[in-house]
Write a structure and sequence with these properties.
This protein is an alpha+beta fold. 23% of the residues lie in helices and 43% in strands.
Length: 278
């Protein structure tokens, strides 16, 4: 009908966390805590009008502005989408809502503002696959590692290769050794694999998508693992991410070095860029 508002798409997700609400609030509202489960570099002014910056070591920056704050209950952030309108970039919003007491907190995230237009598809699809993983990372941090230092092994490689073929190589015996079908596992399923370099990873699935796996590693003190192949910024990319808490720094650095060498070896014929995100 003429004059009718266009329908809005939104991503909504709720997660129960076995922790006090004050701890979960810190995990979403204080930079020192956000950087222990989400972006490695975080700046936050958690007040109405305050600036927020989530940054992945220069590879990706996500600037936002705080719109509303109710301490311990609600936080809304706004940022500019990649979709242009007559008034500038269309705004998108991320709402964090907390409820609960007695050691159990329900976190509800609503990411909204996406229109029905195809121009929003890439951003909407990206956050719809990203948030389920990231919020499980948050839960693992709050429930198992709250306040502890996070160490990262994080290796990336830009590639010129079909995504399914890239996943076959990454999951194959010359690389991770987990097998391509590991992506078909469900949350809570156990997994165990040993890489071509002899690193053993064992734990339980948090999320599994086509060409992606994340899990909580019992083999590494409830560390967080995420591996996958995706299109980022219009280009295919392979990435490996291990977040450890309380582990020896040299052990995590050793994984980093072996992963860097693995990607260089397995994708030597098709690499376009190589970034070791130390």
């Amino acid at each position: 009908m003429a004059g009718q508002e266009k329908s809005e798409r939104r991503f909504e997700m709720s997660l129960e966390i076995a922790a006090e609400r004050s701890q979960v609030w810190k995990a979403i509202a204080e930079a020192d805590h956000v950087s222990r489960w989400f972006a490695p570099d975080v700046d936050m002014e958690t007040r109405a009008g305050g600036d927020v910056r989530w940054s992945w070591r220069g590879l990706h920056d996500w600037p936002l502005t705080v719109e509303q704050v109710r301490e311990g209950e609600f936080l809304r952030m706004r940022y500019a989408s990649s979709v242009a309108t007559d008034d500038g970039a269309a705004p998108l919003f991320v709402d964090w809502e907390l409820a609960g007491s007695g050691g159990t907190t329900t976190l509800r995230l609503v990411h909204h503002g996406f229109g029905p237009e195809a121009e929003f598809d890439a951003e909407y699809d990206g956050i719809s696959q990203g948030w389920p993983v990231e919020l499980r990372s948050l839960r693992n941090y709050v429930e198992n590692h709250f306040g502890r230092t996070r160490r990262l092994a994080w290796s990336l490689a830009g590639i010129d290769l079909d995504l399914d073929e890239a996943w076959r190589r990454l999951s194959g015996p010359d690389a991770l050794g987990c097998g391509a079908d590991v992506q078909a596992l469900s949350e809570g399923d156990a997994f165990e694999f040993t890489t071509a370099d002899g690193d053993r990873f064992a734990g339980h699935v948090l999320c599994a998508f086509p060409r992606e796996l994340s899990g909580r590693l019992t083999s590494h003190g409830d560390a967080f693992l995420r591996v996958g192949v995706e299109v980022c910024g219009g280009s295919p990319q392979v990435w490996l991410w291990l977040a450890t808490y309380g582990a020896d720094a040299s052990a995590t650095e050793g994984v980093q070095q072996r992963w860097d060498a693995m990607l260089a070896r397995v994708f030597a014929d098709c690499r376009t860029t190589a970034e070791a995100a130390h």
